[in-house]
Specification:
cNMP-bd_dom_sf; single chain; 8 strands; four-stranded antiparallel β-sheet; RmlC-like_jellyroll; activator; alpha+beta; cNMP-bd_dom
Length: 191
C-alpha cells in the first residue's frame, strides 16, 4: 500500500524521496473489513479523515421514512473529508461503510496540521486536491440535477464504470436518484 502513496506523492509534489518516505512512515494505514462502519449517522463528530488506497466506501443517510439514500461512493485515490468536527453539538448527517475490504490512510486534524508545518508542500498538495475535489463535485452535482435518469446512468458508465461491478444495483440506483426497477429498464434499453 505504501507504494501507492509513494506514486501519489511523486505525481503531485516535488518532495524528495526521503521526505516522501518520512511522510509515509508517519501515516497510519488501516485495513477495514467489508461492512465496517467508519461513522454512523447520528454519531458524534469525528476528527478523522480518510484516503482510500484500496476498496470502496459508501456514504449514505436514512431519510425521514427510514429509507437508505446513497449520496457517494469513494474508491481508490479519493479522500473522504469530514467537515463537522468543529461543531461538537452536531451529529453526523450520514454513515460511511466499507463496501469491500478496504485499506485506508486514517488521519486526524492534529496530525495533519503537524505534518503541514513540517512539509509545506504537502499542505499545498492537499489544498489543491481538495479544490479539485470540490470543483469536480460541484460540476457533477450540476450535471446530475439537470440530467435525465438515463443520462445519469450514462455518466456513471463513462466516468466510473467500476461502480457497476462493485456496488449492488439498489445502491447504485439510489445514488442515481431512481428505483432499482428504473435502473434495470435503462440498462436493458442501452444494451
Amino acid at each position: 500500500m505504501k507504494e501507492i502513496l509513494m506514486k501519489y506523492l511523486a505525481k503531485y509534489t516535488t518532495l524528495t524521496e526521503a521526505e516522501q518516505q518520512a511522510i509515509i512512515n508517519d501515516l497510519i494505514i488501516e485495513g477495514f473489513k467489508k461492512g465496517t462502519y467508519l461513522i454512523k449517522q447520528g454519531d458524534s463528530p469525528t476528527k478523522k479523515c480518510f484516503f482510500v488506497l484500496k476498496g470502496c466506501v459508501r456514504q449514505y443517510y436514512l431519510d425521514d421514512d427510514g429509507k437508505e439514500v446513497t449520496s457517494n461512493f469513494y474508491t481508490e485515490e479519493q479522500a473522504i473529508l469530514l467537515f463537522n468536527y468543529e461543531e461538537p453539538d452536531q451529529s453526523s448527517n450520514y454513515s460511511l461503510t466499507c463496501q469491500e475490504d478496504c485499506a485506508l490512510v486514517v488521519a486526524d486534524v492534529e496530525s495533519e496540521l503537524k505534518m503541514y508545518k513540517q512539509y509545506t508542500e504537502l499542505e499545498s498538495m492537499t489544498r489543491s486536491m481538495m479544490e479539485n475535489y470540490l470543483a469536480q463535485a460541484q460540476n457533477e452535482y450540476a450535471k446530475f440535477i439537470r440530467s435525465s435518469p438515463e443520462a445519469r446512468y450514462k455518466m456513471i458508465v463513462q466516468n466510473r464504470p467500476d461502480l457497476l461491478k462493485r456496488v449492488p444495483q439498489h445502491q447504485l440506483a439510489s445514488y442515481l436518484g431512481m428505483t432499482p426497477e428504473s435502473l434495470s429498464r435503462i440498462k436493458k434499453r442501452i444494451q
